Amino acid sequence: MSRSERLLRAAAQVMERALRMRFVTEVTAGTISDADYADYLEIEAAFVETATRLHGLAVWSAPDRTALERNARAVHALTTTQADYFREARAAWPVPARPGAARRAEVLSRYALDVAREGGYPAVMTMLFAAESLYLTWCTRAHEHGAVPDGAMSAWVALHADQAFRDGVRALAAEVDALPDDIPQERLTRWFTGMLEAEIAFHDAVFG
Questions:
Q1: pLDDT the model gives residue 208
Q2: Which of 20, 32, 189, 207 is the most buried (most CB within 10 A)?
């Protein structure tokens, strides 16, 4: 069993809790309110900036050219495709975010940046693998079987269920699998499950 597979198995219970988050349930069912999704647009846009910084650190610390190129492509996507999405979605959304929305959800950025400083490239790859595995799973389910409303919400879900995103998660798994053997699996599990727990707190903050 590969390192990435062992991480997914070790974190299965936490992942299942994350997949049952209120935010995931309401977006999938199409029942989330305009005000709550407006807050999500605000807090997720802020975290995309953090994700860009994480991939930037990974570019700096990349162990080989393949890893460098993968992370550089991620920085490009975050600062173009995703930045464009948030700019357009927030401008078109029927209500603005409530004051202080982004501050309510700082837990995810704090956790990710603190762990990145602690663990460098291995920590970044492990945390991003956790976050992107979560999004690929719930968005694929919502895209294929949910009742996500058309427009900005369905576009966001579809973006995280398409082949390009799937390939990105597969690339993250490959980077985790290639991490040096002297990094204990228990440390990777701590980073991985910690990221999922932070994701749960982050998404719960959408609702105040």
A1: 82
A2: 32
Using an 8 Å Cβ cutoff, are 191 and 119 in contact?
A: yes
- Range with the lowest mean pLDDT among 11-20, 24-33, 96-105, 120-129? 96-105
Angstrom distance (rounded) from CA 32 to CA 34: 7
CA distance 56 to 64: 15
Render 147-176 in DSSP notation, one character per residue.
-PPTTHHHHHHHHTTSHHHHHHHHHHHHHH
Can you list the alpha helix ranges (DSSP code H) found in the chain?
3-10, 12-19, 22-29, 34-61, 65-77, 83-92, 101-104, 106-145, 152-159, 163-177, 185-204
CA distances from 174 to 2, 65, 144, 162 (A): 9, 14, 26, 19
The CA-to-CA distance between both ends of the chain, in Å, stands at: 40
Name the residue among 191, 58, 51 with its Cα closest to residue 109: 51
DSSP-assigned letter for residue 4: H
Kindly report whether the global pTM for this prediction surpasses the value 0.90.
yes
Per-residue pLDDT band for 57 (boundaries 50, 70, 90) equals very high
